[in-house]
Each structure stands twice: as structure tokens, then as C-alpha cells.
From TrEMBL:
It holds the Pfam family VTT_dom. GO terms for cellular component: plasma membrane. This is Alkaline phosphatase. The keyword Acyltransferase does not apply. Keywords: Cell membrane, Membrane, Transmembrane, Transmembrane helix.
Amino acid sequence: MAEWVQGLMDSMGYVGILLLMILENVFPPIPSELIMPSAGFAAARGDMNLVVVILMGTLGSVIGTLPLYYVGRAFGEERLVVWADRYGKWLTLRGKDIRKADDWFDRHGPKAVLFGRMVPGIRSLLSLPAGMSEMPMGTFLVFSAIGSALWSALLAGAGFALGENYDRVEQYVGPASKIILGLLAVAAVAWFIRRKREQEHAEV
């Protein structure tokens, strides 16, 4: 993966960074933790400008959020509520749970998008609830851009500082993303068990 990323940037330059960061948001197995530090290392060698690297990374990241945003927008809250009321019992999920989640996102969505864009593992997926809750496009783009810029600057700066050891960034951030996903999975299981028990008590 590292060789492919480096080869694409060597052949396409800034456009390669842009395309890779778009793909990273659509296909998470292509990690920004590898793309941006590699670009930062290229800037340290004098092959690229660090500021332009960060700008291209930010632009690609923001563009990459749009497909899932529009998927969420097309699916919509009402369709999800109908689906949950019809089939959600198998997941202990009800339509009113969807509405509660949507209300929460309406209140905290901008902060969730801003900080979520800097969390490996969920940074791409946040576009779905943003679309489902019909967050205004302008708001979504602004907070996505700020979060993406901070994340791109952090990773590119680390690659610039580490030089030839830029791949250490992915070595540290990669396990962290797995821990975050693991914690989210545990939280989902705990929520499932709690809801199941509530349903059982309600039926007694």
C-alpha cells in the first residue's frame, strides 16, 4: 500500500494527493494516516510545498465526504424510521430511537462533524448521519473543512518532521483507530443488550 501511495504521488504530484484523499473517504482501507505523512515527507525533501500539500489533502477529504452525505440524504430519516418500525425489532431498534438520534445530531451535529473528522475509523462514516439529519450543506462543508484541515495539517506536519520515518505515523495511528472501532463495537453490544432487557421487562 505504501509503495502504491508513494508511486501515485510521485507520478501525479498534488493531484495524486487530491485523488487519494477522495478515495480515502470512500474506501477507508486507503488510510489518510499513510497518505498525508508521505506527502509531508515529499515536502521535506523539497519535492512539494507543505502548505499546498495540506490544502490538497483538505480539499480531497471534503470532496470525499459528499458521496456518503448524499446517500444519507437520499435515504432520509423518515425511510429509516419506517424501516425500524417494521424490521428493527430484530435489532431492538424502534422508529422513536431513530428520531432521538436525529434530534441529538441536530443539536450536536456541527461539533460531531468537526471533531469526528479527526477520529480514525469514523471520520468517513459521519457523512451518513449528517445527510440523514439533513444538515445544511453549507454547515456540513464548513465544519468538514475545518476538521479535515486540522487532520491533514497534523499528519502532513508529522511526516515533514519525521522525514524518512514518516511511516511511523501510520504505525501509531493505525492501532488507535482499531481501539476506537473496538470501543464503538462494545458500546453497540452494550446498548443492544440493555434494549433487549428493557423489551423483556416491558413484555412481562
